[in-house]
Structure formats: structure tokens, C-alpha cells
UniProtKB/TrEMBL annotation, chains A, B:
It is found in: Membrane. It comes from Hibiscus sabdariffa (roselle). It is a multi-pass membrane protein. Keywords: Coiled coil, Ion channel, Ion transport, Membrane, Transmembrane, Transmembrane helix, Transport. The keyword Transmembrane helix applies. Belongs to the aromatic acid exporter (TC 2.A.85) family. This is Aluminum-activated malate transporter 10. Residues 377-404 form a coiled coil. Residues 452-482 are annotated as: Disordered. The chain crosses the membrane at residues 66-86, 98-118, 125-142, 148-169, 176-197, 209-231.
Amino acid sequence: MAPEKKALEGVEWRIRVADGSTEVPVPDMGLARKVWLRTKGLISCLGSNVWMFLKKAWDIGANDPRKVIHCFKVGLALTLVSLFYFMRPLYDGVGGNAMWALMTVVLVFEPNVGATIYKCLNRMFATFLAGFLALGVHWIASRSGDRFEPFVVGASVFLLASMATFTRFIPSIKSLFDYGAMVFILTFSFVAVSGYRVDKLFDFAHQRISTIFIGTSLCILVIILVCPIWCGQELHGLTVRNMDKLADSLDGCVTKYFTNTNGEDDKKTQGYKCVLSSKASEDSMANFARWEPSHGRFNFRHPWKQYLKIGASMRSCAYCIEALNSCINKENKAADSIKKHLSTSCLKVSSSTSSVIREVAETVKKMNKSPTVFMLIGEMNGAVEELRNDLKSLSQLLDLSTSAENKEHETPLMEIIPVVTLASILIEIAVRTEAIVSSVEELAKLAEFAAHDGKSKRSEMKDKIVPDEEKPEGKLEALQRV
Amino acid sequence: MAPEKKALEGVEWRIRVADGSTEVPVPDMGLARKVWLRTKGLISCLGSNVWMFLKKAWDIGANDPRKVIHCFKVGLALTLVSLFYFMRPLYDGVGGNAMWALMTVVLVFEPNVGATIYKCLNRMFATFLAGFLALGVHWIASRSGDRFEPFVVGASVFLLASMATFTRFIPSIKSLFDYGAMVFILTFSFVAVSGYRVDKLFDFAHQRISTIFIGTSLCILVIILVCPIWCGQELHGLTVRNMDKLADSLDGCVTKYFTNTNGEDDKKTQGYKCVLSSKASEDSMANFARWEPSHGRFNFRHPWKQYLKIGASMRSCAYCIEALNSCINKENKAADSIKKHLSTSCLKVSSSTSSVIREVAETVKKMNKSPTVFMLIGEMNGAVEELRNDLKSLSQLLDLSTSAENKEHETPLMEIIPVVTLASILIEIAVRTEAIVSSVEELAKLAEFAAHDGKSKRSEMKDKIVPDEEKPEGKLEALQRV
């Protein structure tokens, strides 16, 4: 066989030459050497892939060490629950059903406190309910005689499983008891169907309930005591971060447009995209946060739902920034004279709007009512008013240029349009920022934020500006008409 | 006690009068009557709540009967798997471990085919892998003597559970094997830890694997044979529906603004909000769809990821419609003369843009390459060009009004701004519509859409317009510069 292969290789080599390519002919290799080279290539390719994968995994861990801690927490909880197997008295206490505790830990343990508690409570409650119902069904079935018992049990499983599955489609139940419905189906069919075989059904139900109780309590202890990650705190932090990002992108976009600086801080300018894409995580965090006990500065009944409203108002602002961005990235045809004319007031509007957003972010972060926010809103509205005046004076600029018949200074309307569009989107952003402010104020009211501390610089500032901020609403309304 | 209560009631009654209210005094009631009334109130309140809940549930079922069918499918699968309990030969065949099959059905059964297959395959694969690893660990542990066995097993559980949990944080693994990682942890700790107690470990692992195999095959059979809901088909349908909604809202908004018809079809106008909020469901559907076998017009390797790109381009268009909407809903101060001047061309742009979107929706729906889409793009670009010309002529209108010193016809610039903003957002929407078209074309290329059928009206139209559509790209580029 070996000589044949050699011959074939020879043919191949000659064909290559016939191709007319200028390739330098490689020296003829033995089969073993070829296999070795190919294997080496494969191994090095595999090795580099594995290396890349490990590097990526390392980066994930290094970027957020809490993920690594979570992994060890899962290991810890599982090892603890395994004790039930290794210690004979504990094992005998639950009649050999210790695996249910193990299973509970695997299924229930989530990275954050809220989700874990939600699953634990759902699992316990659903197991109790389903256990009792299944015992009732078993009692009825056992009275109906040997012939009918399977039918009674089968029909009850069919009906209750269908009904419980249906409740998972009802939004109000889904948000609170989705996992519970699944556990209900599981436990009910388990206990009801096993009733036909397991003789000591009551013991079986009792053991399942007590092992699940052991598993869930262990999970709750580990998740709360070892480096807990609170959903509420995460949601709070995400909201603050998103506000800062919004302010940064607004500032970045407008400054980039008027100062023609390009590409230096694109990452900052694109921050609003995080706001656009964080709806799903906000929803789930708000849903889990309400299961969490009082922690840090948050009470048990902290108004988490209000964060969703704040998120929605931020997103509506981010849509406008997206439109603004499209104005800016368009091939730039605006006349420089017009840009110059409006640049001061546009920059003022954007900087005052972003400082309102930053102030509100600070309010949420510190959970203190801000003394300066109304002043800042006043400033923002003043800047908007100024921008409107500049826009009005634009027409005079146009008139002047045409009536003076000074043709070289004339600006065609087409070159005004991009800047005018940008300005009116900016005004809309200012209007939507007010919506963010009012949703944060509602949060401050609901969560009873403390008044600002008297020592801060802001309180001194406030004393000076009280007359300005008396009727912010009047100004807001004036703004809506722009 | 009864006389005391009477006396108290008397006091209460007298206090009410002292309030100075004009309430007619109710006749004094006995305790029993009071309790009866309160109970009746409670019951009727509870009854109406239950009634409302049932009505809501009924509506959910009536709006989407497939949800009801899914519930019955779960019931059916569970009843079928219960047969293993009721039939002694089957039960004995898996050594009393039939409950694993039951559990598999409950945990694995999802409303659509893709998600079910994903979970089934993950469960089987992970169970095999974990089972073999656990047997290996058990073999090593059993060699290390009675004293060290628990430590070896405990350490292996801790390490492997932590590592498997960590892989769930790596995006590429999470999207494909998230459920598998969980099942791996579950099975591995089960089998490894049970090794310390269950004597016939190999039988245990074998039974677990065979019961899971029975459960998953039953699930796959039921989900595919009884009224299947295919994730791919759903994603396809959602994309088409969203395109139609986008076109409707665009048309609706612009028509509403220029014809001043209010509130008649608000639902249609708000359709773009569905596009904004469907990212999460698109992502999960595209993720599950790739597990589905060939079904209907979709192959196994249908380019589902391309639908996400189409969705992203639709959303970028929807952001602009949101900005457009905010222009329209602002307290309207645009001059009627200007509105009139631009209305024809704006309406033309919006109607031609929406017919491009509708045509593309039709392309996706029928999975046929559209012969007219380039003509429609040409029309759209023509309309955009017209709008630009109208915008240019606006300045002449302004010049005319001032130079003729015909003061009553003068239009201040401020009254032009809203319409001009709207027009430039419209132009941006036209640009973004091209992105939708090109992402759909990529889909057509990847999924090898058939060319249109020769009999349709469109092909006749195409023959006439070939010269116009030769260079659509050139026109696109011209548009970008607006």
C-alpha cells in the first residue's frame, strides 16, 4: 500500500507543475511526516481555539468577579446539601429522599437574591398546595375501586396540568407565580401518579415537602449571607448609570456637531444605545426586586415599579437622541454661518439639559431630594427660550441678506434645514427631560427621599435662586408650545 | 354582651348626628344582620373579582386558541407518560424510576417546537455526559478508601458545579447550552453523590438515562404531531406583521398631520411601538428556530439570524417615526400656507416609502424576490427629490413675501420650522427604509428566495421600468447627501 501512495503523491506533484504555477516544489514527504504535520496543525489550531476560549472566559470573570463568586456559591450550596447523603442520621431522617434537596438547590439557585427568593417561595408554596390536592385526589381515587383508580388519577392529572399551564399565560399570574405553576404540575402529577404504586403515600408527600424545605432554606441562607447580589440595588444602579450615559451622549453628540471633533469619544456618544436596549433587564429586575427583604437603603416595599416608568421616560429621550445622531452623521451640508449663529444657544441647551439629567441621576443615586433641580430646569428653559429667539432671528438674517442684495452672503434655505432640524429635536429632548424629572420626583415622593442635607453647597445656591424656581410648571407649559 | 354592643351602636349613631351631616339615619340593625350584610358584600366582591378573572382568562384563550391547545398538549403528554406507572410491565422495565420520565415532560415541554427540541437535546446530551463523568468520579472515589470517598466526591461536585455554572455566563455557550449546563450539574451531583448510597450505581445511571430518553421522545412526538407551533414560522410572521405596522404608522402619522384628522385610527398610528418592543422576542425566537427541523417553506439551515438584522433595521426606522410623532403631537403652530406648500410632496414621500416597506413585507411573506421593489425605490427617491425641491422653493416663497413688501403674506421662520423638521425626518426615514430593503435582499440571497412568478402583474410592470431601475444604488447615494 505504501508504494502506491508514493506513486500517487508523485502524480499529484507532477500535476501541480503542469498547472504552470511558479510554486517552488516541496521536497517529497513520507506519509508519517504528512500525518504528523497535519496532526500538529490540527492540535495547534485546537489549542489556539481553546486558548481563545479560556482567555474570553477569563475576561468575563475579570470584568465581573461577582460571576465567579456566584459559581463558588453554587458549589458551596451543593456541597452543603450533599452532607445529607454523607451523614447517616440526616439521610435516614428524610427516608432516603435527600436527592430532592439536591435537586431543589440546583433548580432554585439564581445569581441574585430576588430571583432565588422568588423561586424558593414559589417552590415551597406550590409543593404544599399540590401535595395536599394530590392526597385528596388519591383518597377519592382509592374509594372508586381498583378498576377506576387509574382513570380518576389520569383525568385529574390531565385537567389540573392543563389548567395550571393555562394560568402561566395570564400576565398577572405569570409575573408572580410562573415558576410556582410549573412546580405545582410537577408535584401534583408526581404524588398523584405515585399514589398508585407507593404504598406510604403520606410519608412520600411529607418527605418531599421537608426535603424541599431543607433545600430552599439552605439556598436562601447561602444567597443572602455570602456576597449577596440584590436585584433592587442592581436596578437602582442601572437606572443611575443609564441617566449618566444619556447625559454624556447628548453632550457628546451636540459638541461633536458644532466643534467638528470627530471620533475621539465615540463610546461616550453611543451610550444612549444602552438605554434603548435595557428594557428587558429592567423589567425582570423590577419583577424580582419586590421579593427581596429590606436591604441597604431600600425597604421591603420600595416602589420598584416606578423605576420602570423612569426607564420608559429615559428611553423616550433616547429615541430623540437617536434622531439627533442621524442628523449629525448625515453628510454635513449646513452652512457654517448658520451653524455659528446657533452654536452658542444649541450648546447651552444641550449642556443645561444634560446637567438636569445628571442632577436627577445624583438625586436617585443619593436618594436625597435635590435642591437645585428646579433651578437647573429654569436654566434649561431659559436656554431653550434663547434658542427659540436665535431661530427667530435667523429669518432676519435671511431677510437681510436678500434685501440688501448682497448676493455673496446669501444662505440658501436648504443649508439651514439640518441645523434647524437639530435645534428642534434638541428642544424636544428638553421637553422629554422634564418627563424624566417628573417621574423621578414621583419616585422621591413614593420612596420618601430625605430632603437634601443643609451643609451642601447646593443649599446655599438654592437660597439665592428661590424666586426663579417658584413656577417651574408655567415654564414647562410655555416650552410645550415650541 | 349583646346589650353592650347595642349601647355602643347607639353611641356611634349619636356621634354621627353630632357631625352635622345630613345623612338619613339608618334603622338600627341586629348583629346577625350586620354580619350577614358584610358577608354578603364580601362574597359579592369576591364573586365579581373571580368573574373578572375568569373573563380575562376567557379573553386570553379566545384571542389565541393555540394557548388553549398547548395546555391540552401538556395534559396529554403527562397522561401518556403516566401510563408507565399504570402498566406494570413498563413500570418494572425502568425499575420504578418512571418518575424521571414524568419530570422530564414537565420541565421540557414548551409552547413551541424549537424551545422543546432545544431543551430535549440539551437534557439528553447533558445527562449522558454527566452520567459518564459521575461514574468515573465514583470509580476513583471508591479506590480511595472509605475515609476519603466523601471528600473526593464532595470536591468533584464543588469543582464541576462551579465550572458548569461559570459556562452559563459565556454568551456563546449560554445561547446554545444554558439548559444543558443546568441539567449537567443536576445529573452529575445526583449520580456522584448517590454513588455513596445506591449500591447498583450503574443501573441507576442507566435507568435515569433511559427514562429521560422516553420522556424527551414523547415530548418531541407530541409537540410536532399535535398542532405544532414553529418558532421559525412565528418569527417570520412577526417580521412581516411588524413591517406592515411600520408602513401603517408612517402613512397614518403623516396623513394625520396634513389632513388634520384626529384620533380616528390611533391604533394604526401607534403600530410602530410594537416594532420598538419586539427585540427580546425576536432574539429568543431566532435562538430557538435554529433547533427546528425543516418545516413548511423553511429548511433546517434557514438564515434565522438575518431576521434579527432586519428587525434592527426596522427598529432604526421606528425610532425616526417616534421622532416624527413627537413633531406631529406638538401643539401645532405651523403656518397653513407652508403646510399646504409641502403637503403634496410629504404625502408622496410617506406613501411611496410605505409602499416600499409593504412590498418588502410581501417579499418576505411570499419568499419570492420582488420584481417591483427597485421601481418603488426609484419612485420613493423621486418623491424625496421632489420634496427637496419644494423645500428649496420655500426660500423663494419667503423671499418673495418679503421683497414684495406684502406684509400680510409674510410667514415667520418659526412657523416653518415644524414642517421643515418633519420633512427632514421623513427624508431620513426614506434613507433608513433602504437599509430595510438591503437587509431583506441579503435574506433573499441567503435563503435563496425564488424569482417572482412570470404570471404576476408585476412582471409586466417590470418590463416597462427596466431602464429606470438600472442603477438604484446611484440614487441611494444621491439621497444620502440630503
